[in-house]
Amino acid sequence: MDGYLATGAVYINEKSERGVAGLTSDEYQAVFDKHINYTRKAGNRFSHWAFDCLWAVALCLNNTSRQLQAQGGKLEDFQYDNEEYTHTMFDTMTATNFLGTKGQVVFDEDGSALSRQRVAQFQSNSL
Fold first, then answer.
1. What is the pTM of this model?
2. Can you give the pLDDT at residue 115?
3. CA separation for the pair 19, 56 (Å, rounded)
4. C-alpha span between 13 and 116 (Å, rounded)
């Protein structure tokens, strides 16, 4: 095991920074823990990720709505087969960039979320 390299996603922002929701990662965790009555489940570690996903969608929709209004359209008129609306929404999503509870949330040109990764090495039986 000595020398073994491990990689994995970073699920929480270890810095005490206030994100778009006005909460630090620790403050969000306290609210979440209280909401779930302090029960521990395997999926709980993904709650920061899910919270940030909801913020990404909300920011994308708000920014898309503003852009459509500037072009004389409305978000309420969205249809999947309307390429102009689809492109506007996609472009808005790829431009979305904010500080969330797990750190900076940003998307690449294909719309994939980019996230921090942790690399660790076992040395002398410790990480």
1. 0.82
2. 76
3. 12
4. 10
